[in-house]
Fold this sequence. Notes:
Elements: E1 30-31, H1 35-39, H2 41-52, E2 55-60, E3 64-69, H3 72-80, E4 85-86, H4 93-96, H5 107-110, H6 121-135, H7 140-156, E5 163-165, H8 167-171, H9 174-183, H10 191-199, H11 207-227, H12 233-239, H13 246-277, H14 279-286, H15 292-302, E6 308-314, E7 318-320, E8 323-325, E9 330-334, H16 335-339, H17 371-388, E10 393-394, E11 403-405, E12 410-412, E13 416-418, H18 431-436, E14 445-447, E15 501-503, H19 514-523
Parallel strand pairs: 1-2, 3-9
Antiparallel strand pairs: 2-3, 4-6, 5-13, 6-9, 7-8, 10-13, 11-12, 14-15
Helix pairs in contact: 7-9, 7-17, 9-13, 10-11, 11-12, 11-13, 13-14, 13-15, 13-17, 15-17, 17-19
GO molecular function, one term: heme binding
Amino acid sequence: xxxxxxxxxxxxxxxxxxxxxxxxxxxxxxxxxxxxxxxxxxxxxxxxxxxxxxxxxxxxxxxxxxxxxxxxxxxxxxxxxxxxxxxxxxxxxxxxxxxxxxxxxxxxxxxxxxxxxxxxxxxxxxxxxxxxxxxxxxxxxxxxxxxxxxxxxxxxxxxxxxxxxxxxxxxxxxxxxxxxxxxxxxxxxxxxxxxxxxxxxxxxxxxxxxxxxxxxxxxxxxxxxxxxxxxxxxxxxxxxxxxxxxxxxxxxxxxxxxxxxxxxxxxxxxxxxxxxxxxxxxxxxxxxxxxxxxxxxxxxxxxxxxxxxxxxxxxxxxxxxxxxxxxxxxxxxxxxxxxxxxxxxxxxxxxxxxxxxxxxxxxxxxxxxxxxxxxxxxxxxxxxxxxxxxxxxxxxxxxxxxxxxxxxxxxxxxxxxxxxxxxxxxxxxxxxxxxxxxxxxxxxxxxxxxxxxxxxxxxxxxxxxxxxxxxxxxxxxxxxxxxxxxxxxxxxxxxxxxxxxxxxxxxxxxxxxxxxxxxxxxxxx
Length: 525
């Protein structure tokens, strides 16, 4: 099949052409933005699949052509074959010929940066290795204790009122609290940081200022950790044998923060919505026939936190799903459509219990390294919320819920709920305030296992500025485009081998139901 991209970006269709439809562009190609893409993405995927098969030509903003990969196996091939489909956006032919301007609405997503998500081969292995090794040092059982405390702190803020918005008052805050704890900067958590993380990926007029605030916070953190290492992710990246520069450490911390925040906030909101609107789902959960982790996994199939990832760029001419892909073509990894591919899910209503073949966290060398921590935040957070508010009900009609969408994800704007008002739960102390205190008494900690020894790193004499900071010197990398907030692989922050310190916590009272006791034990508190 020949390439359907025979038009020029921005060409105006003739009168009576179906391209005058807001959802149809030049050449009769469907747009992956606009009303239909935002309001009914599943319906759009079905149309594209019926018209083109497993790989469909689509139009991005400005009617720039690209390919959306719909098939499950085709997506796996794209993500697992960097020799054919690179993450280096500088290969994009539309960038090289000027079809895509530097101020394109998607520039924050595709603009090349010297970080692992835009790298292949040895460079990717070095940077990704530092990130993965550092994440493996996180004590996941200790993180679960933090998540439980943070969740109860958030519920305390609205439990006496009987009403709440679980997006704005819970789902959007819990991931940032956990990220700040893992990074080693609990004192930096505040409303401004949460709003900046929300704002910088949504193409608003204030996105640049929001990005600058996050970079400033992370720059201070890296400066502190160069001088005073601590058992946290920032220190482990600074000290890693890969000898990452301060710029690299700051940029990768920013990548992890935004990826973890965005994906996990969406996941929590989607799990809670499914629990509230599907009576069978809620009944199975409360009756002990489904655990919270199983509910999270089902949500990752049905409502993945990222619907697509932009992008991959064809290294040379090739064929994929019967389509002729040209060198320099852009492709989107279609996470949501891959999860509904009829070849792997002929019955979308079937229970996918225990099946992790979904692509919610992408695949291949760039698969999200923090997916287990993302699951943990959702598992423990949702469980803690439901235990505190067992009679939770949707506060509005299901039809009144609405989303804000883009090519990468759909954000549930609000999730109003009502419940019987209840008392606040007594916490030992504000968890973030306790974590920010230093030094801590020696008997206030449990040590799971000793921290691994790493060679003495080569420190820089001067802290490097991020490439996108005002007045920063240009990077030594060849021909980079101006840096911008990265397009993260769907992610959230990771969960492997325990090593870090964990604060002790009182054991909660035994729950009334056996399944609650089991899920509490599984969650690590």
